[in-house]
Amino acid sequence: MNKMISVTIVERLAELPWYTEGPVMDAQGNLFFTTLTGGIIFKINPEGKMSHWAYAKCPNGQYILPDGDHLICDSGQAGIARFGGDGGFKGYAIKDHCDGQALGAPNDLTADAHGGIYFTDSVRETGKVCYFGTDGSQRIVGRDFDFPNGIALSTDGKRLFVAESYRNRIMTCALRGPGQPAGKWEEWAMLPEHPSGDIIQNLPDGIRMGRDGLLYVAHYGMQAVQILDEDGKLVDTIRTGYPLTSNLCLLPGEIIVTGGYGEPGPGGVSSIKL
Predict the structure, then answer these.
(1) pTM over cut 0.85
(2) Residues in domain SMP-30/Gluconolactonase/LRE-like region (predicted)?
(3) For 147, which of 2, 78, 126, 168 is 20 to 30 Å away at the CA?
(4) Which CATH number goes with the domain that contains 125?
């Protein structure tokens, strides 16, 4: 049965003119997030000071590599940009094409234990899930999604999960190797529907796999983070306070949430302590 998690503290870390995305935290406790149409990647240091860290055309999902470099989906450049730990642009990890297929709008990404990158290409009806490895290999992992969005691996790395926004569901596929599906994509979970029936009030966005094996889903128009168990069953809901909830970052006892009040803005970043 669905229940509300007890939220002890909701703290606004930042208010901005732009809708926000892509929250990640590095090993030093610095929080980074993106602003899409703002074109700015922000940094908030452990003391709470916020600064402009880097710039891109339309920065979206973000991942920090073991060496401290950042990979950032640039939906406005059909690529994934690489930035050094100092915010300096180092080039594109992938751009315009993956495995010979044109890219439209890379949205979010995650890495496997081998350093390979899975990412979503978010377009309506013909969206793709893609992969590129450290050896230069490229593969299309899935096709014909209706706006694939958030992406996450299971804790053992053997299963991939993708939020299919315009069908309000989470899809999954077993993996037999890096970037290699073991079978067909299957519906893993349908998410709660907004009572209005308006599809825009649903739209699962960013997703994260917790160490506890639970999948956390930023549910765009539902003003919530939905929490699903290992069987895809809804077990909890957290109200975020953002009419449009875009993405999240999981920390011990805390969830960092991005989103806003409209697109292209305004937006913000919040800390929800459980």
Answers:
(1) yes
(2) 20-252
(3) 2
(4) 2.120.10.30
- Note down pLDDT in tens along the chain; length 274 residues: 445 555 557 899 999 999 999 999 999 999 999 999 999 999 999 999 999 999 999 999 999 999 999 999 999 999 999 999 999 999 999 999 999 999 999 999 999 999 999 999 999 999 999 999 999 999 999 999 999 999 999 999 999 999 999 999 999 999 999 999 999 999 999 999 998 989 999 999 999 999 999 999 999 999 999 999 999 999 999 999 999 999 999 999 999 999 999 999 999 999 999 8
Q: With respect to residue 67, please indicate whether it lies within any of the assigned structural domains.
A: yes
Q: Which residues of 215-242 are buried (b: 16+ CB within 10 A; e: fewer)?
A: bbbbbbbbbbbbbbeeebebebbbebbb
